[in-house]
Design a protein that fits this description.
372 residues; alpha+beta; Sulfite Reductase Hemoprotein, domain 1; 21 strands; 22% strand; binds iron/sulfur cluster
Length: 372
């Protein structure tokens, strides 16, 4: 793919002007937020934005509806809370980590400390401030949950000593000790071999060129299977699905009250300690049999000028109805697992793997291309 311009991924210092005001995206490396940091975000959304915290498909947090002087106030608050450690690197701290890392038996290695070390190494490298905002790192604890997200530079745990570092499908065994340095090295090599491209997969022969610069040779073929993380208890963790990935003030406050650390997942859910209470009461989902499980939606109207429908309102109306009341052809998408509602053909925020496609077309919807 030939890119002709720099990417315009929003950040906190580079706010996107959407139809409903400024949109700021706060990077949350490894998805980790302390309860105090989540409360800072909650208050900022209430006082500077539209009151909600949006969870993104890369495990970040967005605040919408910022007024003209909102971004400056927001960046001051985030800096004070430790959520903006580098002004130059704020849009490039795109680091995913398996959200259940270290919490259940499927976790072969706790990758969260590696995510923190990688974030530090990234911010310590001035050249990497030039990475495109879409360039993605992933640290998989061995369960394969991040494979579908197609990171540019990924690591998957084999055990507590060894991991597979991969660029696309090409992998090489490495020791954990070397991982942060190698991932940063791969990003630097990408900047050296790219032209205008935003992702490694867009560079012809990019994977080989970068491995060569790192002095590595691919020897591993990554397993194709992917694991899905659904709402419910997983060992010492509780996965809590946030309906349509949009946290209300009340829901965010309930998560703050849980205390400790909240982990944002890339699937519009969060992980809190097992046994946490007071979440179902505010409309959060803690069991996998909910109609909200797996359902995602783009911003739609009124936030996005391109949207042909208020997809969130339409999805909410449908899913709030009892099965008997869910009228018309759209009823067929209820309880279908992964379903993504889009206000136009760009399908922003769609899941990485197979999903039921609900697309607004101006005078109704298409479901997997079929008018309903
Ligand atoms: S999919 Fe279309 S309507 Fe939805 S947020 Fe993206 S551009 Fe806007």
């Amino acid at each position: 793919m030939a890119r002709t311009e720099v990417d315009r991924c929003p950040g906190v210092l580079a706010v996107h002007q959407a139809a409903d005001g400024g949109l700021a995206r706060v990077r949350v490396p490894g998805g980790r937020l302390t309860a105090a940091q989540l409360d800072v975000l909650r208050l900022a959304a209430a006082e500077l934005g539209d009151g909600r915290l949006e969870l993104t498909s890369r495990g970040n947090v967005q605040i919408r509806g910022l007024q003209a002087d909102g971004p400056q106030d927001l960046s001051d608050r985030l800096f004070a809370a430790g959520l903006l450690p580098s002004m130059a690197h704020e849009r490039v701290r795109n680091i995913l980590a398996s959200p259940l890392s270290g919490l259940d038996q499927q976790s072969r290695y706790d990758v969260l400390p590696v995510a923190t070390a990688l974030d530090r190494a990234l911010c310590d490298c001035p050249a990497l401030a030039e990475l495109p905002g879409r360039f993605l790192f992933a640290l998989d604890d061995g369960r394969g949950d991040l494979a579908e997200l197609a990171a540019d530079v990924a690591v998957r745990a084999l055990d507590e000593r060894v991991a597979v570092l991969s660029l696309g499908s090409r992998g090489v065994r490495v020791d954990w000790d070397a991982v942060p340095e190698l991932m940063v090295g791969a990003a630097e090599a990408f900047l050296a071999v790219r032209d205008q491209e935003w992702r490694i997969a867009e560079v012809a022969g990019g994977e080989e060129l970068i491995l060569e610069r790192l002095g590595l040779r691919a020897t591993e073929v990554l397993p194709a299977e992917t694991a899905q993380v659904v709402a419910g208890v997983h060992g010492a963790g509780l996965v809590v699905t946030v309906p349509l990935g949009s946290l209300t003030q009340e829901q965010a406050a309930a998560l703050v009250l849980v205390g400790g650390e909240v982990r944002i997942t890339p699937w519009r859910s969060v992980v809190v300690p097992a046994g946490s209470t007071g979440l179902e009461e505010v409309g959060l989902v803690t069991t996998p049999d909910s109609v909200w499980e797996g359902v995602t939606a783009c911003a739609g109207q009124p936030g996005c000028a391109k949207a042909l429908a208020d997809v969130r309102a339409d999805a909410t109306t449908l899913l709030s109805a009892t099965a008997g009341e869910a009228a018309g052809g759209l009823a067929r998408v209820v309880g279908r697992g992964r379903v993504h509602w889009s206000g136009c053909e760009r399908r922003c925020g769609k899941p990485g793997a197979g999903f039921v496609d609900v697309l607004a077309v101006g005078n109704g919807y298409l479901v997997d291309g079929e008018r309903v």
